[in-house]
Design brief:
flat; 7% strand; four-stranded antiparallel sheet; three-stranded antiparallel sheet; alpha+beta
Length: 450
């Protein structure tokens, strides 16, 4: 009931609050514009450091002495090196012996012949087969004649006899041919054995001859090597003696040449050192005079420059202090504007909160009236926060506690449902695009808890 009373009171005082809120907003916007329009100036712009015209001086130059040309050493001349003629020698050679292989039999000289060239082919067996064919034909004719006349027995016996005789002749002929082949083979084996013996003897003679020639060549080579070594040793001994003599003469000439050059260099070095000492003493005296003159001139210029720097620094600091004063005034003016904006913002926030509270009281009161009448309430999940499930109704609808994100719909904690979880017949879409729930059509009550 208290919520309903607040809503009625807010309805009667809402016009005044809206006017106060509008005025506060206008005051805040004007202060904000003044603050934004304020331009901060860089008071240090165009400032330069102290400008000083320093006092210089012309440095005195020392007159350095002139060092004369250095004394040169008279170098000795080294004569040509002593050489020598090397002793040579003529090496001793030898003629190597050769071997003769003409005793070996080869080609047609081996004496081999084809012992099978004159063998003859035996034709007795073929003749006998032809006769047997003729006799078989004659026998057939005799049998035919006997069948007609009863004769022909004598002819058959004669044929059998002739066949036996021919077989004996053929056997003899085969034995003759076999003996001829055996004789030919024996002759061939004999010739082959004789040739093998001749070649073996020839090879033995050739090997002996090669051995003898090799021994002769070794003896000749040994003699030549001994003669060459002796000649080489003699030539080396003579060459070493000649080289030793030439080296001794050349070393003596080098020693003499080095001693003469060292003496000449020593004299030239002493002369140059004396000239450098005199040159250094003259220059040091001139430099001492120059430094004294430059120090005096430097002290005068430094004193003048320090005075000029002090004056320039004083003027610069005075300029800085003047500009800093201008900046402080500028900062004060800007702070004054920001304070005005802050006060206007505080009044604006106060009026905004009063207006929001009035709307909440009005909506809360209307909500209370709707709760009593069981009408529509904003129940879209997108409008709520701090949502907590606290129970389930008898029809199976979830019951929640929540707060509205925008307190224009109500301030505090409420109990109710989510529009997307109730039957569609109890949901009504508001012109704002959010869903409302007609709590008169479900078994859950919408109410304010806190």
């Amino acid at each position: 009931m208290g919520t309903i009373v607040k809503g009625v009171v807010s309805a009667f005082g809402g016009k005044k609050r809206r006017r106060e809120q509008k005025q506060a907003n206008a005051t805040y916007q004007g202060a904000l514009r003044n603050q934004d329009a304020f331009e901060m100036k860089n008071v240090m712009a165009g400032m330069t450091g102290p400008q000083v015209q320093t006092q210089g001086y012309d440095a005195a130059l020392a007159q350095s002495g002139q060092l004369g040309p250095a004394a040169g050493a008279q170098m000795a001349t080294l004569g040509p090196a002593q050489g020598y003629s090397a002793q040579g020698y003529e090496s001793q050679g030898y003629d190597a012996g050769t071997t003769n292989v003409g005793g070996l039999l080869r080609g047609a000289n081996t004496g081999l012949t084809n012992t099978m060239a004159n063998l003859q082919v035996s034709t007795a067996a073929a003749d006998m087969q032809a006769r047997e064919a003729d006799q078989a034909l004659a026998a057939s004719q005799d049998l035919a004649a006997q069948a007609g006349t009863g004769g022909g027995g004598a002819t058959a016996l004669a044929a059998q006899a002739a066949k036996s005789k021919a077989g004996v002749t053929a056997s003899i002929d085969q034995q003759v041919k076999q003996n001829e082949r055996l004789r030919a083979q024996g002759e061939s084996e004999l010739q082959r054995s004789q040739l093998s013996q001749q070649n073996l003897a020839s090879k033995f003679d050739l090997g002996q001859q090669q051995f003898n020639v090799g021994q002769q060549n070794k003896a000749a080579m040994f003699g030549a090597q001994a003669a060459n070594q002796a000649a080489q040793f003699g030539a080396q001994a003579q060459n070493q003696a000649a080289r030793f003599g030439a080296q001794a003469e050349n070393q003596f000439a080098l020693s003499k040449f080095g001693a003469a050059n060292q003496m000449s260099q020593f004299n030239a070095r002493n002369q140059n050192q004396f000239a450098q000492s005199q040159f250094g003493a003259d220059n040091q005296f001139a430099l001492a005079n120059q430094q004294a003159q430059n120090q005096a001139a430097s002290m005068g210029a430094s004193a003048a420059n320090q005075a000029a720097m002090a004056n320039a620094d004083y003027q610069f600091k005075a300029d800085v202090m003047e500009r800093q004063g201008e900046d402080q005034i500028q900062q004060f003016e800007f702070k004054k504007l920001t304070d005005q904006t802050g006060r206007a913002a505080a009044i604006k926030n106060q009026k905004d909160e009063a207006r929001a509270q009035a709307k909440a009281d009005l909506i809360g009161g209307i909500g209370g009236l709707l709760e009593e009448g069981g009408k529509l309430f904003m129940s879209d999940k997108r409008l709520k926060k701090n949502i907590k499930l606290i129970g389930v109704s008898k029809s199976g609808i979830n019951i929640y506690t929540f707060k509205y994100k925008n307190e224009i719909f109500g301030k505090g904690v409420f109990q109710g449902v989510m529009a997307d979880e109730v039957p569609s017949y109890a949901v009504v879409k508001d012109k704002s695009g959010f869903n409302k729930v007609d709590y008169s059509k479900i078994d859950v009550k919408f109410k304010s808890i806190i």
